[in-house]
Design goal:
GO terms for molecular function: metal ion binding; methylmalonyl-CoA epimerase activity. With 135 residues, the protein is an alpha+beta fold. The chain is globular, with a radius of gyration of 15 Å.
């Protein structure tokens, strides 16, 4: 794993949260994106080398909706940039980590992603992110 790619924060309402984070971070939201496969609407911020992703559920049965129901708004996951997501997934599986998906899937912000179950990371949901290279 190379570096923290972003921190994901679950929010109830992007319409209210985006202006709040723009003020808090003194930075504009540079991108919003719906990730239909995850039933989530996202908003991204960048301050220096750091990125924050806000996540709003688009369905009551999405994982973000369930997270908000159980825990309320707050940090949802920490994402790490990797050079080769397939190799990293194999390394983690070989070391006994439980992956939430068997193959990488398209995520937000031009990334292929895979999640590590929080039970194997002291309660923290870990996301692996690999930039999609367009040829």
């Amino acid at each position: 794993m190379n570096k923290i790619e972003h921190v994901g924060i679950a929010v109830k309402n992007l319409g209210k949260s985006v202006p709040l984070y723009e003020l808090l971070l003194n930075a504009s939201c540079y991108k919003t994106e719906i990730v239909a496969s995850e039933q989530v609407n996202t908003a991204f911020f960048k301050t220096g080398e750091n990125k924050i992703e806000l996540l709003e559920a688009t369905s009551d049965d999405s994982s973000i909706a369930r997270f908000l129901e159980r825990k309320g708004e707050g940090i949802h996951h920490i994402a790490f940039a990797v050079d080769n997501i397939l190799e990293e997934m194999e390394r983690l599986k070989a070391n006994g980590f439980t992956l939430l998906n068997d193959t990488p899937k398209k995520g937000a912000d031009n990334k292929m992603v895979c999640f590590v179950h929080p039970k194997d990371a002291n309660g923290v949901l870990i996301e692996l992110c690999q930039e999609i290279k367009w040829v």
